[in-house]
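Marked as duplicate of an earlier ticket. Keeping the data here for the record.
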Amino acid sequence: MEHISYHVIPIPIGTSNAYLVYGSDSTLLIDAGNKGKIRYLEATLKYEGLKISDIDIVILTHTHYDHVGCLAEIKEKSGAKVLVHRDEANFLVDGCTPFPKGIMWFSKIIYQIGHGFFSGRAKYPPVVPDILVDGECELLTSVPIRILPTLGHTSGSVCVIINDECAIVGDTLFSAIPGSVCPPFADDGTELIKSWQKLLLTGCRIFYPGHGKPFSRERLEGYLRKKELHGSLNFPEIASSKK
């Protein structure tokens, strides 16, 4: 197998992680963090010997405010194309994405108490996307990139598979809660579990989440085994929310 040289650089931009991925002749940014935090991206680019104008494309794992807050400013400064799942394109154009319900005891309470707060935080500077996807596809870049729809956290969540070795997963997986890989909020728990299984089928060894540090596939496999053993691998309160 031909060796492909590339770099994956995590960038905390506010409360979430964005990721810079670059190879010999292409530079991609996955997600765009919180509004008003573009300086963290610019500092990372400078450290890596890059400029914001080097960014060819911004891929959105989903359109929640903490993942798209700097997008309008990044697009204006870089001229980069913006890729998003078709199901969330209208949210991006409107500059507001509804926040999903809680699926854990604490996140249910947070959602119930803070629903109005979340609704206010859901807004961000609107952006017209350039590329819409609604199924699995590959990008023609120097680094082999595959876009994999992974529904569950939102109806238009995607993961970015890099050279079939690692995956940038947005909020499809979470790494900020000890002992868990599950996001505390999601639209559809049944689809979320299916998406975890799809990720394991890719063969990726490392997962880069939108919140928390990267972790191995063994952590995801262990979490699934534990939940299956205890018969708790379901979220009936939100499963099949599309019905």
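See parent ticket for discussion. The longest strand covers residues 7-13.
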